[in-house]
Amino acid sequence: MNAHAKETAETIRSAVLEAGYDACGIATADAFPEFERILRERMDRFPETRALYEPMLKRGAPQAAAPWAHSLIVAVRRYGKYRLPPGLAGHIGRAYLFDRRTAACPDHAMAGEVVRRLKALGLRVRKGGVPDRWAAARAGIARFGRNGFVYAEKGGSWINVETWLTDARLPADAPALDVPCPPDCRACAEACPTGALDGPFSMRMDRCVAYLTFAAPEPIAEELQKQMGGWMYGCDRCQEVCPRNRGQWKERDRADWLEAVATLLTPAALAEMDDETYRNAVHPLFWYIPADRADRWRANARRARRNRRSAPCESTGSGGETCYFDAAMRE
């Protein structure tokens, strides 16, 4: 790789970090055959999940959709820097609470800024379209855990991975393909409420609580509803109990855009929320449930309140002790 390519790579890395990301790596845009193999194994093992996994297969061949792409720029954004508003732990997944794509989030413009800077360098760019977690491991900026998430050195799994394909031929960073989970640790699989994680690296999406809360066809089987606990949108259990996440959540920044509506996001409030309040205050933050489906939120919240009567208080496992069902539910 010539000196110009190395210089371009360093310029890109600096641009990504200056845009606000916490880490940046570079990988080839080659296919991800292992990603495809694992998806096919899951579909063979759980045929009922084929419709969920099959559309993902195309992500494993980036150059099929972008034949001009030679390199992959990969960035990590750490969202475990925000203060969690009271009353939301155990009910809404943190990745959704602190989603950068929300217009009110201070990190909202980061990805657009990266694209602007890359194009200013004369590069052709396409955002996404690859298996992001696999890209992070290939680029050496995150390592897989047995729960299927990837972990950064700073931030644990409380991160987002974002990717950009480019036509530049850039020197690739060393991959991080090892899995430094504690030997024989099964904390994530044992904590999974519905058994969606049925073993190391083995996930069936149709039982994942996150999928069940906002995307699964209704009605949800009564057995699964009882196992979903207090989660109304998303789930963090396999990350909360993970020893690799201990001490990784650093509450240094206020989430003012959430603080302003936090009282509307509790199970008690959502269980009785009217359609207009949902459309105006909740849907702009959590859009996987459509704007005309406030009834799904109400059903999720009422199920969460029913379940809390038989659920124990558990540690988040992420550095502090937080009740699995927060105190506001125990009126």
Would you write up a description of this structure?
With 331 residues, this protein is of the alpha+beta class. The chain folds into 2 domains: 3-82 and 107-166, no CATH class; 187-329, no CATH class. 34% of the residues lie in helices and 10% in strands. The chain contains 15 helices and 8 strands. The N and C termini lie far apart (64 Å). The model is unreliable at 313-331 (pLDDT under 50).
Question: What's the helix and strand layout?
Answer:
Elements: H1 3-18, E1 23-28, H2 33-45, H3 50-53, H4 62-65, E2 71-78, H5 94-97, H6 110-120, E3 125-127, H7 132-138, E4 143-144, E5 150-151, E6 159-166, H8 187-191, E7 197-199, E8 202-203, H9 209-214, H10 222-227, H11 237-240, H12 256-259, H13 267-271, H14 275-282, H15 294-307
Antiparallel strand pairs: 1-2, 2-6, 3-6, 4-5, 7-8
Task: Provide a quick synopsis of the model.
With 331 residues, the protein is of the alpha+beta class. Helices cover 34% and strands 10% of the residues.
